[in-house]
């Protein structure tokens, strides 16, 4: 630690130092070269310091490596890929060219690009050595040292690394300042996909601060500092008070504590990515240590400059295994869990060997807003008249399935439908991963009982459903119908075990596909499928818009036969005319004992007007919808 007691200025990737000697200490390990630059005034920055380059290239005359890892006062820089290829080729060239040209051998140690270009231009054995060692090839693609030796860098306490170079030939499209103190930029690249570039808050700290964070991390790891979420702040203050590391001016204690907390008890750079409200998904593709993280922004999937370390991949797997209470191993190679990242609820899907070449993750953030039917009408997900039909169906105890592919908004629509239930009705919600707005419904005074099902033998979805049916009369919502619970659900619907609405989501595109999935894949008798009253199919357009594609009724007495009530056309989601002509079996079945078909159509018209008025006035929140539901119950 005494080696860190020095005053250093400059940012994480821009430090000073003017001495002519390199103080880096090198050590081979596995397939990498480790470089300790703690006592080097140049910080081991290979893109800027010819002295540090010389130290590394001289080492690489002994053996090849896949990467060079430089550690300096709380900072780690990783040179792999093309950067490692250049350094390794320079080491090979140095070893071979010494027998031909000692001057060029000395040059390649400090200036491998210049030495390579000189060698390529010669007509003797030196040019052949440059070609044989690979130095000529890597130099052609290298450009300058900033790009050729641009590292993946990050705090040593972090499990994440970022590419610090600006994409070549790029044009800045967007810049976003995030609540975490980090900055996100989107660049347009000629002939390539746009790129999402994250500049984490910790990278704006000076070198002394990064050293303080590393020392504070060591105190946390040793167990010397405890205190839950406040432990990071205590550890940072303890290091500063010990005066082990000399700093300049005011010390940003709170900022350092926030960075340390993010990388110890938080989700690392995942927190920064989901701090961007435009990011809905984050993808970590196996093999994770070799693949950059990608994000979905709107309808675009963009590569980022972020990558996980091997330690980071294992840490995420352990974290979600612990939080979900589920196995995630070769014996159970998939994971479905939920977590909270910053202020957002996030669903985690994981895969590992043997189902995948290593560990991979897909993170999807739930919407921050609580969606209601008027809100979905306002944003064009469905029309007011289609919403009115769904609302009346729920109110009058229908069995409704929301179908569609992944990411089409099925759960969002199901959550909005729950607000249409009369407040007096008790509702049981069954989910394996919490996504429905149970807490918001409870806050508004709704009687909602949530049951958490699991795919293992502890409390299966089928057992959860049987439990729900024993919890008393009321509505039932199943987060996703996908296994043996389908048979229990349809049997309950067939014999009338549930008097109020039954709701659920299922994968499938329109009626025939859903019928095939329920009957052929899930083992529900074809005759039982008729217990479904209404099928609402959602879709995600090529532009990324989520909307209702069609609404179909299931015809009685005709197994697997459907009739379209609403469908997408040139003017959006429009009625097929079946309801207006009086031909809808479903709508006819909604009538109260003393109610005519005309009365019911009038009721639908009034509800359409109410929902449209709420949407137009912007009164789409839970409180406004609750007020409207109570008013129409009077």
Written account of the structure:
There is one protein chain. This protein is of the alpha+beta class and 634 residues long. It has 3 domains: 2-12 and 22-150, no CATH class; 160-365, Beta-Lactamase; 399-583, P-loop containing nucleotide triphosphate hydrolases (Rossmann fold). Helix content is 37%, strand content 23%. It has 23 helices and 27 strands. The strands form 5 sheets. It has a 9-stranded mixed sheet, with helices on both faces. The protein is elongated. Residues 1-20 have low confidence and may be disordered.
Features:
Beta-Lactamase; 3 domains; Rossmann fold; 23 helices; alpha+beta; 634 residues; 23% strand
Tell me about the largest β-sheet: 9 strands, mixed
Structural class estimated from helices and strands:
alpha+beta
Residue-averaged pLDDT: 85
Helix content: 25-40%
Shape: elongated
CATH class of the largest domain: Alpha Beta
Could you tell me how far the N terminus lies from the C terminus, measured between alpha carbons in angstroms? Answer: 74 Å
pLDDT under 50 segments (min length 5)?
A: 1-20
Number of helices: 23
The total number of structural domains is: 3
Q: What is the CATH architecture term of the largest domain? A: 2-Layer Sandwich
